[in-house]
Amino acid sequence: MSDETVPLLEVRNLVKHYREASGARVRALDDVSLTVRRGEVVGIVGESGCGKTTLGRTIMRLVEPTSGEIRVDGVDFASLSGAKLKAARRRVQMVFQDPFGSLNPRHKVGVIIAEPLVVHGVPGAKARVAELLDLVGLPGEAAGRYPHEFSGGQRQRIAIARALALDPALIIADEPVSALDVSIQSQIINLIGSLRARLGLSMIFISHDLSVVRHVSDRVGVMYFGKLVELAPTSALFERPRHPYTSALLASVPRPVKDVVREKRAGAGLVAAAPGEIPDPANPPPGCAYAARCPLAEPRCREAVPPLAAVETGHEAACWRSGEVAAREPITSA
Ligand SMILES: Nc1ncnc2c1ncn2[C@@H]1O[C@H](COP(=O)(O)OP(=O)(O)OP(=O)(O)O)[C@@H](O)[C@H]1O
Ligand SMILES: [Mg+2]
């Protein structure tokens, strides 16, 4: 299955439209292409509603794509059925933002972590649960307790243990630390780093928190209004952003930790990084969706959508004026 020359995950021209109750169509994902290599962590950032969760859930086939391809180890899930599909699904697992909502409060932790093993008929669940608890830094006796007996950070360790149960090749983590206190966030981030080193995990790490994404990712993708607008190695993205939106996002951090905590308490996602409104998803503009907020916008930006294109090796941006971005808005690194 694991041919080293084939990317672990290959997403091609992925589109997801939702139909709202009013009948309006929402383009939650608009032609997203992305690969994840073996052992790589790709961070995805962007403001609330830009399509990050939809991307994760579509890759997981928790929602069906409107069009496009998703290949894991070169195999398109859509071409599989029955036992082959079930086996392929084991390769990708998800960790969600809310470690309480995602754990069944009526089940003991041992049962929760063993569930995927039972579903897939894997023998030796009890020993595997003990191994997984140890891997995520929890004591073996945790198996006999209930989720409410644990702190938020410990519950996220339980969720990670369950995601690892079937030895997946790729984990999609959707805001895995956003609900946690800042001090606990760094413990979970360190855990993810050590699991990566020990297990050679690949990951898509979704977050609205740029500093977290910078810390964990090899490459970072920036989403805006359902599109990937920039994709680059982490250092290149933070030091030489080539999309004005990325530039604006970077200019909005770092902020004092107490402000970030206050915003989280207020339930806000990433604060608006630039003045102006995000377009109505049911009525997208003809050109670049960022043009209305963009300090560099010129007439062609309102007429034609810029494609995601290479600006240097391994660095792509979807902007007609990408050459002028870094020069106009110098970014001081954190
Ligand atoms: N089931 C659904 N039905 C209709 N529209 C949806 C559905 N799920 C998401 N959307 C819409 O799709 C767009 C993308 O939503 P998504 O949840 O993927 O964003 P997100 O980037 O994860 O946001 P957040 O940072 O708030 O989690 C939004 O406009 C949202 O309202
Ligand atoms: Mg989301």
Automatic annotation (TrEMBL):
Every ABC transporter domain range: 9-250
Compartments reported by the entry: Cell inner membrane
Record-level Gene Ontology MF annotations: ATP binding; ATP hydrolysis activity
GO terms for cellular component: plasma membrane
Superkingdom: Bacteria
A single GO BP: peptide transport
Membrane topology per record: Peripheral membrane protein
CDD domains: ABC_NikE_OppD_transporters
UniProt KW keywords: ATP-binding, Nucleotide-binding, Transport
Cross-referenced NCBIfam families: oligo_HPY (TIGR01727)
Membership in a protein family: Belongs to the ABC transporter superfamily.
Name this protein carries in UniProt: ABC transporter ATP-binding protein
Species the sequence originates in: Salinarimonas ramus
